[in-house]
Design brief:
mainly beta; disordered C terminus; 372 residues; 6-stranded antiparallel beta sheet; globular; Beta-galactosidase, Chain A, domain 5
Amino acid sequence: MTRVTDRVSVTRSAVGRSPSGGRIFEYRLRNERGTTAAILTLGATLRTLVTADARGNLDDIVLGFDAAEEYLRGREYFGAIVGRYANRIARGRFSLGGRRYQLALNDPPNAEHGGPEGFHRRLWSVEGTSAAEGPALTLSLVSEDGDQGYPGKLAVLVTYTLTHDDELRIEYEATASARTIINLTHHSYWNLAGAGTADALRARLTVEADAFTPIDEQLIPTGELRPVAGTALDFRRPRTLASRIRDGSEPQLVLAGGYDHNFVLRSAPCLLRKAARLEDPRSGRVLEVMTTEPGLQLYTGNFLSGAVTGKGGRLYRQGDGIALETQHFPDSPNHPSFPSTVLEPGRIWRSTTVYRLRTRGTRRLRSQAPGQ
């Protein structure tokens, strides 16, 4: 399948099969600038995002695998839509409406990212494509009542749009048949220098947050909202991740073995506003993150130990990519003071996150793709 308008296109190809025999398709979106995003129906996964640097050189800037079936292994969640509940829930337990629920555990003794058979392992259906603001793809998934222990039947829509202004826009919608909890996120690992280059920790990060949710030894929030001032989690001004990730005097970094923390974003949630900015000095690429979510999880791939072989045969290690997961707070159902993640039947849950691509020092013409 190919839909083309001038240089804009949406193409589809079969790239593998799931263990049940279902076909895995890849949809490739290309905008006016020549930026391309490849999205798998497995996990609604962003497999590649190829964009130009400040000199016009094209590189893929997200970590992942060469073969589609490899996304079924391990717990890296490269590029996936994660759910029903992103991040961790302590002991996989929560109460709702006076009833206690036990979730499937996949990070003993806790539940993480929706459980062992979360949304990242599902084959999503394609609802359609379009090309108004830029090439777009809408995917859907139905999670039955009791799936991984969660109550209520949940219907989810996710739309990826690669705008002509080089924004990867992700819009979520969900409805439930019964009262439930929901917390979806996108889990790409970004390396703005190029996914096969030196570590991503040299990039300069800014986070629009004055506080974070500190964790315990099991990486579960304590319930406190702690100011970032005076800690290694202060990114209110640009700083490289490499400058402090090995700071043994910061207990929070010692507990997580790096950064694996939720930041409390400024401003009212439900409004699309700036959450973070990542800038790579070598390539000149800049990634700006906008979201309607109240939190942002910074993760530096602490569990990547060189045992996972990624694209081009590269052995992925900590710091090869940086995850910036827009979300509600981890373990929110067990912390009444945190923003609520409850979805009532008859209501529509909506969320939007935008990853805006820019280059520093060079303005590319909208009418001309790199290299033309």
